[in-house]
Amino acid sequence: MFIFLGYLVVGLAVIGSYVLMGGHLGALYQPFEFLLIGGCAVGAYIGGSNLDSVRLLGRAIPWALRRDTHNKALFMELLSVLYKILQRMRRDGPMAIESEIEDPPASPLFAEFPQVTRNPRLMEFLTDYLRIMISGNMNAFEIEQLMDEEIEAAKNEHDIPINALKSVADGLPAFGIVAAVLGVVKALAAVDQPPAILADLISKAMVGTFLGILLSYGFVSPLASALERQAKARLKTLECIKITLLASLNGYPPPLAIEFGRKVLFSSVRPSFSELDGHVREFRRQAD
Which of 83, 126, 217, 225 is the most exposed place for a label (fewest CB within 10 A)? Predict the structure, then answer.
């Protein structure tokens, strides 16, 4: 929700300063300038995109506008479910989790971790590689390579709407100049009019430059940054799973394997060692 707060601050700073210096809001109301700039931006985006790019952007923008769910609570649940899975595999054998990963919604194990199960991309990544692990046909090095390729593909997919918005943000000031130039052309065509009319036409033309720069740096660019931040958070969940599972494949016990996964998290969402250890001890007591 910080993006809405940022938009509010930008709007208040710009409009408030303009009004306080004696400006009239009516002079900024130029719908056709906005139509020209917005239409050019949308048209340029469509021209450089395809249906998949448009779909990814349409799916990504609501993510940026919602509250980020990739918080400490989610990563605590993720590390906890990884611990329980690895502990069961170590105690009862790899095939003990086969029924759990084949139907996660009906699994008593996953039912304890609702934030994890509500994340379909995370669940798909986790269950796919658990299936590969219990199949026993690939070694740790091969699985790591496959994980790296999938994470790279996910990153490239996340980058498509981010780069599209950055391109639109870069183009908006130029489209604002186009609107301003057309406004000046209109003013020059009315050179025989009184100075007051010419001044009004030129001031309206300058609004085009103003709108292009404001939309670029005040609205579209921050939206691209918000998408980029959330994309990094989503990828971090996959990296956490990757490091934890690889540590287990390399022979580390579950408590140490999840410590590997904990260490790759951002400090703002990383559970402390004592917090995670407390959860692990509780699971051990339940198992006993």
Answer: 217
In a domain, 240, yes or no: yes
d(CA 265, CA 232): 11
One digit per residue, pLDDT tens: the chain, 288 residues?
688 888 899 989 988 888 888 878 877 888 888 889 999 999 988 888 888 888 888 888 887 777 777 888 889 989 989 998 998 888 888 888 888 888 888 888 888 888 888 888 899 999 999 988 888 777 888 999 999 999 999 999 999 999 999 999 999 999 999 988 888 888 878 777 787 787 778 888 888 888 999 999 999 999 999 899 889 989 999 999 999 999 998 989 988 999 999 999 998 888 888 888 777 776 666 654
Task: Name the residue with tokens 């720069």.
Answer: 213
Please say whether the beta carbons of 158 and 234 come within 8 A. Answer: yes
- How many other CB atoms are found less than 10 A from the CB of residue 102? 11
Based on the structure, what is the number of domains in the chain?
Answer: 1
Q: Is residue 1 part of a domain?
A: no
Is 5 within a domain?
no
Neighbours of 64 (CB within 10 A): 21
Nearest to 145 by CA among 242, 241, 237: 242
Domain of 155 in residue numbering reads as: 31-287
User: Does residue 52 form part of some domain?
Assistant: yes
